[in-house]
Amino acid sequence: MGRLDGKVIVLTAAAQGIGRAAALAFAKEGAKVIATDINEAKLQELEAYPGIQTRVLDVTKKKQIDQFAREVERVDVLCNVAGFVHHGTILDCEETDWDFSMNLNVRSMFLMTKAFLPKVSDPGDSTMGPCPVPSLYPGVVNRCVYSASKAAVIGLTKSVAADFIQQGIRCNCVCPGTVDTPSLHERIQAREDPQEALKDFLKRQKTGRFATAEEVALLCVYLASDESAYMTGHSMVIDGGWSL
């Protein structure tokens, strides 16, 4: 038997990186995974794995989210992974950058949580509500709007946890350090000197390496399982000691 047998999990940003690793890890532990993403081509690759079904979804579109929620009869776990990393200080952040980051990093989680929280099938059965995946919570250079948006996600997590604890619904979030994902490599290649950018990213990792998406996914499995039944409202840091 798997650690997630019988659980239905809705997952966003599942086409690559942490989202893809989480989808595979959830399915391996026996969950029925409904994996969503805006990237249809990459998303379809997950259909080859037992226990995973896919749906194209733009989490910035309320109508799409509400329609999707109407199609899902029940859910045990909502895992929100969608996000965008803007590079720069407050002086480098235009209003359009701020609005886009807040829309994708915060508003999408608000919309998904509001739509799917009433769908929780058996709140008393050690279920987990939304599982936002914010960044490391201390301030980070050149991450003004990203840090602001992820601080908001942590506040949202605690609010949902406090408001619904009596109904047996838990809400936790995962705070990873730098993770080896396609998104990270795209950001490195976009810099003027990619080799120097890579060195800069590695310098702040006290372990001397990046986390793997699979390592972060294992923490998501734990939070989705009954093993974490007594945990709610927490920001789980998995950063290789970066914040020490």
UniProtKB/TrEMBL annotation:
UniProt keyword list: Cytoplasm, Lipid metabolism, NAD, Oxidoreductase
Q: What Enzyme Commission number(s) apply to this enzyme? A: 1.1.1.104, 1.1.1.30
BP terms from Gene Ontology: lipid metabolic process; siderophore biosynthetic process
| Keyword check for NAD | yes
What reaction(s) does this enzyme catalyze? (R)-3-hydroxybutanoate + NAD(+) = acetoacetate + NADH + H(+); cis-4-hydroxy-L-proline + NAD(+) = 4-oxo-L-proline + NADH + H(+)
**SUPFAM superfamilies for the chain:** NAD(P)-binding Rossmann-fold domains
Metabolic or biological pathway: Siderophore biosynthesis; Amino-acid metabolism
Q: Quote the subcellular location field of this record.
A: Cytoplasm
Question: What are the boundaries of the signal sequence?
Answer: none
The entry lists its GO molecular-function terms as: 3-hydroxybutyrate dehydrogenase activity; 4-oxoproline reductase activity
Does the UniProt entry include the keyword Protein transport? no
Q: What InterPro entries has UniProt attached to this entry? A: NAD(P)-bd_dom_sf, Sc_DH/Rdtase_CS, SDR_DHRS6-like, SDR_fam
GO CC annotation: cytoplasm
Which Pfam families does UniProt cross-reference here?
adh_short_C2 (PF13561)
According to the lineage, what is the superkingdom?
Eukaryota
Classification via PANTHER family:
DEHYDROGENASE_REDUCTASE SDR FAMILY MEMBER 6, DIHYDROANTICAPSIN 7-DEHYDROGENASE
Instruction: Report the family membership.
Output: Belongs to the short-chain dehydrogenases/reductases (SDR) family.
Query: Could you give the subunit structure recorded for this chain?
Result: Homotetramer.
Function, as annotated, reads:
NAD(H)-dependent dehydrogenase/reductase with a preference for cyclic substrates. Catalyzes stereoselective conversion of 4-oxo-L-proline to cis-4-hydroxy-L-proline, likely a detoxification mechanism for ketoprolines. Mediates the formation of 2,5-dihydroxybenzoate (2,5-DHBA), a siderophore that chelates free cytoplasmic iron and associates with LCN2, thereby regulating iron transport and homeostasis while protecting cells against free radical-induced oxidative stress.
State what protein this is by name: Dehydrogenase/reductase SDR family member 6
Q: Which gene is the coding source of this polypeptide chain? A: BDH2
